């Protein structure tokens, strides 16, 4: 399944790249990956779905 809701880089303007971000219900980590690509460095994703966690670990081993 692919999600198409975009993350617009302009939404990130003015936000320190060192803030702590928790994505609760992160699924397979799509938004975390996008934030990392925009130099955010203090990211945590949490999800309760074993399938999503497995997919996230496969796609984003870090």
TrEMBL record:
Residues 21-59 form the Methyltransferase domain. It is an enzyme of class 2 (transferase). GO terms for biological process: methylation. It comes from Streptomyces milbemycinicus. This is Class I SAM-dependent methyltransferase. Keywords: Methyltransferase, Transferase. Its EC number is 2.1.-.-. The keyword Transferase applies. It comes from the Bacteria. The keyword Nucleotide-binding does not apply.
